[in-house]
Specification:
eight-stranded mixed β-sheet, 30 helices, elongated, single chain
């Protein structure tokens, strides 16, 4: 391979041999993405509005061309140019079009609105000469991405860019309008362990169009590296050219206009000459800087040579001392050695002082860089320490997970044993022998009262009668749980409370929910919303709780017709007919229980709301759960409610009657109409930053696409990503996304407070993986997002594709692009109307109404009185 890295033969051979092997296409793409992120908003807006042609100068195999087209197309034609025929042939093969051509960048003769070049100029020994050429071919903007502060240059690079390398004006017409430097070594999976600088030069017309402040011209060019006069000249030049452009538009009198334009152009020429003189002076300063840098290298080489000479002298001295120690001391020899030693040390010290003084003068400029490196090394060591701590915590978490799994299995076995024992005791309490021994229990109760238990009272043996739907009689067994003798009065209190509830709601159909989920949870779920609304529709609803958080003992009134209770065994045995409300997530319900309740005359309503899968349950699904599920789907006398199309189709494959389709919904009034004043203290600082907030609330589990969120965080560092919810299975901590500086994770927010946080989302997202679980999921948060009236972006879930207000991404790249687009749709009238329409069509009231209609069709006698009257009318 030729040694000339700028030669035509060198680069053709690179592209034929090791370009792909060494990651050239990936590095080109990374540089293009870095440049797009660093482009200021005014530049992107001007290109989109006015540019019709763009050239990627030094395009390699065209990765940047594709990204630029995607960002600024289709009205702006983006071409690629490289002097390697091999690179252009590969670009055409990859991207399948003819907008790629070969050409010498130093002899560019075509005009373009924008010339873009990424990591090309550093390959030239005099890139400023090339800039002068390009400035005559770029009508509006010259956009450059170059390595910055590359003191230890890559062997292929011939020039090091720093602030003193950047002229304020190039070609006498393009003014430096933007400079930004980023440390790309900090990016995930970086392809450049150093800094990159984005430099933008713009025409006076573009500056005037973009309404840039003249004071902003030259910003980013560090004082001290570039003369203040040079920056002032750039600002004056921009002001004059903008003024000339304005005169040409404003003065209706041609002669006066021409005269004033001529005067202005004369001023421009004068300024150009002054800038040329300053540029020459700057070039001299650059050359002086190069000489100083060369002198420093030479001095450091000399210092190293002297240090080596000192080391050799020390070795010789030690050898001489060893030799002297082995012979009889001689005074004259000692004196001679001492004199030689003193002379040698004197020469070494004098030379070292001179070298040290020179090195001290030059090393001061390196101090800051050393401090930066030390800080980076310290941060790396701290990161390694934290990583070790994290690994230790993960091991503890894994051990805890195993223990929890063991305890969960033990708990299920104990519950099953308890159910069997309670069943046996219930049979005993219903037996004739229990009734015959009633007088003995009365005597025993009196005895306990005499012994200091005055609260106890006798338990009546007669069944308590009540009325259910359509006037059907209802009875409550003497007890539904096997209490010790001392607890009989407590059981009696619960029976009395239930009898009182049934009496007060006589004639109302009764619905009993098996214990599935507590009522008092941070986030309301489907069982809560449906229970509340069926009660409001006229059903007497008993919400049976596992009582993990609720702390209820007996019955607690939640709303009209809605009661929270821990007395499932009591209400479960209400005789005379009732509706048992079952959920597919109830893994404790068995086939035997279903058959028993059907035989007792109960009606069963089964809500199939999620894929029955270990991912959701947290453990392998027991065989009895699938047996019970199949039985409920097959029985036509069971009313089945499906929450997603996939689940609905699964039921329809078995039967076509007794089926209701009701997706999840939203409490619209709870989320709608929230302003953006007074953010909660937990997010006040994030809101104050003024950056776009990309939000999510809900659970974090294995179905959450952490890789997608990491990509969004890495490629959009100016976006704040706010995640609200609980770590369902520990996958959040294991994912590593908390390490991104723009990702902020809060714990679960109580349902009543959730809108106060979510109202500050600019874009609401559902970044879920696509699998069996999520293909069957109707996300509640989807409809709550609609009521918030923020643009919504989700992954490609079937239940999200059903709504016109939702933007659905097919892959990670499209997801990031749709988030960008969604930010532009904030406040868009058409988008807001779609969100409102979909939200109003999917309230929990409408879902409960669909279920109530299904009950009325399946069992007309179990409809509330109002529903029966409505049907009769």
């Amino acid at each position: 391979m030729t040694n000339d890295v700028n030669s035509h033969e060198y680069w053709n051979e690179r592209f034929r041999t090791d370009w792909n092997e060494l990651g050239g296409p990936q590095q080109t793409e990374m540089f293009a993405r870095v440049a797009l992120r660093m482009m200021p908003a005014w530049l992107c807006a001007d290109i989109q509005a006015h540019a019709r042609s763009m050239l990627d100068a030094g395009c390699a195999e065209g990765e940047a061309v594709a990204l630029l087209r995607n960002r600024f197309g289709p009205h702006c034609r983006v071409e690629g140019m490289d002097f390697s025929e091999e690179a252009i042939a590969r670009a055409r093969a990859k991207h399948g079009d003819g907008d790629f051509r070969t050409g010498d960048l130093s002899e560019l003769d075509s005009h373009h609105d924008v010339i873009f070049s990424s990591n090309t100029l550093e390959h030239f020994r005099d890139p400023l000469q090339l800039l002068e050429r390009w400035s005559r071919q770029a009508r509006d903007h010259l956009v450059l991405l170059v390595p910055f502060w590359e003191w230890n240059r890559d062997p292929e690079h011939a020039f090091t860019f720093e602030h003193s390398s950047l002229p304020a004006v190039v070609g006498g017409r393009l003014v430096c309008t933007h400079v930004d430097v980023q440390n790309t070594a900090r990016l995930p999976q970086t392809r450049w362990n150093g800094h990159q600088a984005l430099i933008v030069y713009s025409s006076p017309e573009a500056i005037a169009r973009s309404r840039l402040s003249v004071d902003a011209l030259g910003d980013g060019l560090l004082p001290g590296s570039l003369s203040a006069e040079d920056i002032v000249a750039a600002r004056a030049f921009g002001t004059t050219m903008s003024h000339a452009a304005a005169l040409a538009d404003e003065d209706p009198r041609a002669e006066a206009r021409d005269q004033r334009v001529a005067q202005t152009l004369e001023a421009v020429n004068t300024l150009s000459r002054a800038i040329g003189e300053q540029s020459a002076q700057l070039q001299q300063e650059r050359e002086a800087g190069e000489r100083i840098r060369s002198d420093l290298v030479h001095l450091m080489d000399r210092l190293q040579a002297m240090q080596e000479a000192v080391a050799r002298g020390d070795e010789r001295l030690a050898a001489m001392q060893d030799e002297l120690a082995s012979v009889q001391p001689v005074a004259s020899l000692k004196e001679a050695v001492a004199q030689a030693q003193d002379n040698l040390f004197a020469r070494i010290e004098a030379s070292a002082r001179r070298t040290d003084a020179a090195f001290q003068r030059q090393s001061e400029s390196l101090g800051e860089k050393i401090h930066v490196l030390e800080a980076q090394i310290g941060a790396q060591r701290e990161a390694q320490r934290l990583h070790a701590e994290l690994e230790a915590l993960r091991e503890k978490q894994a051990a805890a997970d195993l223990e929890l799994g063991r305890l969960a299995v033990a708990e299920r076995l104990l519950k099953q044993e308890l159910e069997r024992e309670r069943g046996k005791m219930a049979e005993l309490l219903d037996s004739s022998s229990w009734r015959l021994t009633g007088p003995l229990r009365t005597v025993a109760t009196g005895w306990y009262r005499l012994r200091g238990n005055p609260r106890l009272r006798a338990v009546p043996d007669a069944p308590v009668a009540g009325t259910l739907a359509a006037g059907a009689p209802a009875t409550i067994p003497a007890t539904a749980t096997p209490p010790p003798l001392a607890d009989i009065a407590v059981v009696d209190e619960h029976r009395a409370a239930l009898r009182d509830i049934l009496d007060r709601h006589a004639g109302q159909p009764v619905v009993v929910l098996r214990p599935v989920v507590d009522w008092d949870l941070p986030l309301f779920q489907r069982p809560h919303h449906i229970a509340l609304r069926l009660a409001r529709a006229g059903y007497l609803y008993f919400y049976c709780t596992p009582n993990g958080r609720d702390g209820v003992n007996g019955f607690r009134r939640i709303d009209d017709n809605l009661y929270l209770t821990d007395q499932f065994l009591l209400v479960n045995r209400i005789a005379g007919g009732k509706i048992l409300h079952l959920y597919s997530t109830d893994n404790h319900c068995t086939t035997e229980y279903v058959q028993e309740r059907v035989a007792a005359g109960d009606r069963l309503m089964y809500e199939y709301i999620d894929e029955i899968h270990p991912t959701i349950s947290g453990f392998e699904i027991p065989p009895h759960v699938m047996e019970k599920h199949a039985l409920l789907l097959e029985r036509p006398d069971v009313l089945c409610v499906a929450s997603a199309d996939k689940l609905h189709n699964e039921v329809r494959a078995v039967r076509d009657t007794g089926l209701v389709m009701a997706t999840n919904g939203v409490e619209h009034e709870h989320f709608h109409g929230r302003g953006r004043e007074n953010p909660p203290a937990a997010i006040a600082d994030l809101v104050a930053l003024g950056k776009p907030i990309i939000g999510y609330f809900g659970a974090f589990a294995v179905w959450f696409d952490y890789e997608l969120v990491a990509r969004l965080a890495a490629t959009r560092p100016d976006y704040t990503i706010l995640l609200l919810g609980w770590d369902y299975d520990g996958s959040l901590d294991r994912s590593g996304i908390k390490h991104f500086p723009n990702v902020h994770v809060l714990g679960p927010i109580p349902y009543r407070e959730l809108p106060d946080y979510a109202r500050f989302f600019d874009v609401s997202t559902i970044p879920f993986l696509i699998n069996d679980v999520t293909e069957s999921t109707s996300p509640i948060k989807l409809f709550e997002y609609m009521s918030l009236e923020h643009p919504i972006v989700t992954t490609n879930m079937p239940e999200c594709r059903k709504y016109a207000s939702v933007m659905v991404a097919r892959d990670h790249g499209e997801f990031v692009a749709l988030v960008d687009r969604a930010l532009d749709l904030r406040g868009d009238v058409a988008t807001l109307e779609l969100l409102r329409s979909d939200a109003r069509a999917n309230t929990w009231d409408s879902k409960a109404s669909a279920i109530a209609d299904g009950i009325a069709r399946q069992w007309p006698e179990y409809a509330p009185a109002a529903k029966r009257q409505e049907k009769a009318a």
